[in-house]
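Archive entry. Fields below.
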Amino acid sequence: MNRTFLLQQVLNGLAIGSVYAIFALGYTLIFSVLRIINFTHGAIFTIGAYATYALTGSQFGINGLLAGATLPFALPFVLALLGGSVVAALSGVIVERLAFRPLRTRGADPLLTLVSSLGVAVALVNITQYLFGAEPYSYPDPLQGWPTAMNFGTAGAPVLVRTVQVVIFGVSMVMLVLLTYLMNATRTGKALRAVAEDMTTSSLLGIDTDRLVLLTFVISGFLGGVTGTLIGLSVGVAGPYFGIAFGLKGLAVIVLGGLGDIPGAVVGGLIIGLAEAFVPAQYIAYREAVPFALLFVVLLVRPQGLLGRAQVQKV
Amino acid sequence: MASFLATYDFLLVSMVLAAVLALTLYLPLMAGQLSVASPGFYALGGYIAAIMSTKIFPAGPGLYPVSLVLLEMAVAAVVSGALGLAVGVPALRLRGIFLALATIAFVQILGVVALNLQITGGAVGIFGIPQPFANPIEYMWLAVPLLLVSMVFVARLERTRTGRALVALREDELAAAAMGVNPTYHKVLAFTTSAVLAGAVGAVSAHFINTWNSRQGTFDTSVNLMAFVLVGGSRTFVGPVVGGLVLTALPEALRGVAGVDLLPGWLAAFLRDGRLIIFGVLIAIGTVFFPHGLITPGLLRRLGRWRARAR
Amino acid sequence: MSLRVGMSVSMIAIAVLCCAMIGLAADPPIPIGVSVAQTGPVALAGQEQVLGAQIAEDYFNKHGGVNGRPIKLVFQDGGSDEPTAINAFQNLINVAKVVGIMGPSLSQQAFAADPFAVRAKVPVIGPSNTAKGIAQIGEFVSRVSAPVAIVAPNAVKAAMEINRDLKKVAVLYAQNDAFNKSETETFQQAVKDLKLDLATVQTFQTTDTDFTAQITNVLNVKPDLVIISGLQVDGANLIKQLRDLGYKGLIVGGNGVNTAAIFPICKAKCDGILIAQAYSPAYKSKINDEFKSVYKDKQKKDPPQFSAQAFAGIQVFVEALRALDKKSPIAKMDLAALRVELNKQLISGTYDTPLGEISFTTGPGMGGEIVQKQSYVAQIKMDPDGTKGTFVFVK
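PREDICTED_STRUCTURE:
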C-alpha cells in the first residue's frame, strides 16, 4: 500500500475520530460522575449549535414558530461560540434539575434515568424543530482567509485534511488536557471523583454532592455546546436531528475507551475514527456497522474498555 | 361505529401488536436484563415474511391464504429463536448497562446488513406484500390470539419455578446463583423466548403495513418499547400490555384531539405537530412519578380487593 | 346566577347555530388532503412540500377555485415513518373526508400507506415518490415526481460535452434512502451505456456529515466526473468536502440536491455543478413564473423541486376537479363516486404546471406514472461571494 495513501487514511481517521472524541468527552464525564448514560447530550449539543447561530446575529428561516427571528446584535464567532456553549450548559442544568434530580433523590435505577434521558432528548429536539424549523444553517465563516485544507504531504503527493478538522482535533486535545487536569489535579476534581465512587459517603463527608452534580452538567453541557458549534462549523448545522446520530455512535466510543474514563473517550474516538477510515473501498457500504461491531466485540471480550479498570462486583 | 372502525382499524391492530412487542422487552426484564434486541428480531421476522410471500410463494389472485401467513410466522419464530440463541449465549454474560449496549449494537448491525443485501431490497425494501385479509381490522384474528397467548404464557411463567428463578435473578443475581439457580440458562431462555415472539410479530406486521424495509425495527422502536414497559409497568405483565396499548394510541389520540374545532388554533397546531414533544415529556415525567410504571402489582392487588368488596 | 348562565348559554347556542347555518348556506370548500412529513428527520422535505401546497391553495382559490368553489387543504402530518403515514391517510380519508390525498413524502411510506387509499378508492398523488413500482401499487395511485430515467443520461452527456476527455466516473449515493438508491441505479446504468469507466461506487447515509473516507477512495481513482445521489444536506456537504479536499473535476448532482437550499452549505463551492432536474426555476412559462414570484416573495430564493412538485400535485387535483365539474356537477355527487370519477379524470388530463407539461400514463396495471415533457439539466452559477446562486439551463 503506497505511503501517501496510508498517511491519508491515518489522518482521515484522526480527523473523523477527533469529532467523535470531542462528543464523547461530555458524554463520558457524566457517566464517570453519575454512572448514567445521558442521551440528552446529543440534544444539548444541538441547542448549543443553534444558540451560537443566533448569537452570530444570523436569521432563522421561515419555518417554525420563531420564523425569521434574529437577535438585535451580532457577535464575532468565537464569542458566539462561548455564548452558545453557555446556553447549552444552562440547558444541561435545567434538564438535570427537572428530569434527573428527581430520579436521583428517589434512588432510581440507572436504566430508568437512561429512558428518561431518551424522552427528554426527543422532546428537546422536537422543541428545537418546532421553534426553528428543519432547515440547515451555516455560520458566517470565521476561517475565511485560511486555506480550506492543510497539506501534510508534499506538493507532488498531497495529503489533505480540511482545516476545520485540524481545528477540531486541536480543540479536542486541549479539552482532554483541561479535563484531565481538572479531574486529577484540582480539589474539585478530587471531590468529583469521590462523588463518583460513592455519593452517599461523599455527602456524609461534607462534600456538597448536589453542587458537584450541577457542576458536572455545566461542564458537560458546555463541552456539548462547543462540540455542536465546531461540528456545525465543519458541516453546517444540518437540522435539529443532527446531534442524535452522534448519540448512538458516541456509545460505542465511550465503551471502547472505558465508560467514564476521560482519556478513554478520546482514545476510543480516535480508534473508531481510524477503523472507519480504514474500511476498504469496496466494503464502504458496511462502514456504519463498524463502530457497532467494535462495540459488540469489546463488550464480549473486555467490557471495561481499553482504559477502564475491570469492575469487581462486591457482594 | 363503522366510521370509527374505518378510521382507526389500523391503529387498533397496531396497538395490539405493540402490546405483544412490549412483552418481548418484559421477558428479559423479568430476569433483570434490559435487552433492546427485540426490534432486531422483529425486523428479521418481517423480512422473512416479506421474502417468503413475495418471492417464494406465487402470487395468486384474491387474498393470500392465512395458513401461509401462519407458516411464515412459524418460520420467523424459529429463525429468530435460533439467532437469539446464537447471540444470547455470549451476550448474556453481560450485566445491566453493558447488555443494553450490546443489544443496541446488535440492532444497529442488523440494520446496516439489511440495507446492503440484495434480497432485502436495500433502502427501498420489499413492497407489494400480499394481504391475507380484505380489511385491516381482520388482522385482529392474528393479533389478538398472539397477544392472548403471550399474556397467558407470561402469566403462567410468573407462577412456575422458572418464573421465580427469573425474579430471583432480577433481585440479586449472585445470591440466586449461589442458591443453585443457573443464571445463564434462565437468562438465555428469557432472551430466546422474547426473540421468538418478536419474530412472529414481525411476520404479521410485514403483511399489515404492506411493505418492509430497514426502517422497521430500529433504535427508535427500542425507545418506544422501553417507554411501553417502563411507563406501563415493569413489575407485572399487565404493565407492558397496557403501556403498549395506551402509548401507541397516544400520538394518534392527540392528532384526533387537535382536530376538534373548539380548540384555539395554536393549541390545535401544537397538539398536531408537537406530538413527539408531548410524548417525550410524558416519558420523562412517567419515570419520575411512576418508577415502576403505572400498573404495579400493588395496584393490581388493590383493584382486586376493590372488586371483591364491591360484590 | 343560573338565569344569567342560562341566558349566556342560549346566546352562544344561537350564535353557533347562525354561523353553522351560514356555513351551510354557501357551498363548503372542497377538502383536499395533504399528508407529508411535517415532523421527524424528513421534515426538511416536508416543509418545502407544505409551502408549495399552500402557495397552490392560495393561487387557485384566487383564480376562481373549482368553478367558483374554493378548495381547502387539510394537513395531517405523515411523519417520517410508515405507521404515522398510514394513520394520517386513514384520518384524511375517514374523518376529513377529502376528495383526494397528496402525499406521502417518502417512497417507503407510499408503499405502506397508498394501499390503504387504494382499498378505500381514494386518489393519491405522490409529490416526491420516485422509487420503481409506485404507480403500480394500484389504479388510484399516481405521481408527479418523475423517476430520473430520462434526465440522468442527459446530465452525464452534458458533462461529457464540457469535458471531451471524460473517461473515469465515480458514483456516490445515499444507501439508506429509497429516492437516491433508485436514482443511482439509473445513473450507473447511464454511465455503462455511455461506455464510460465506472471506477468506484461509494455509499453514505443521509444522516452522515463527514465524508472524508469516501472522498479519499474517490480521489484515489482519479475520476473525471463524480456523480452524487443524496439529499440536500448530505449532498451539499459532500460537494463542499470534495472541493475542500482538492477535487477539481466535474460534478453531477441528482434530484435530491436540486434546490437552492444547498447554497448556504457549499456556498461558492456549489459553482459549476451540473444538476439533473425534474424541475427548473429557469423554465419559462406563465405558471412557473407566477409560482416562482410568489415563492421568492416569501423565501427570498428560487423554489426547490419539492415545493414545485407539491404545487403541481395540487394543481392536478384542482384542474381535474374543474374539468370533472364541467362534465357533471360535483356538488351533486356523493363522496365515493366523486373520488372515483376524480381519479379517472386526473389520470386522463394534461396539465401545464411549473414542472412543464405533464400527463399520466393510462392502461391496466401501470396507470398514473407521470409523463413529463420537459426535463432539464442545469449548471449552478454562484456569485463570487458565495451567497447567491442560480440554476442556468444547459439543455
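CURATOR_NOTE: Residues 83 and 114 of chain B are 15 Å apart (CA to CA).
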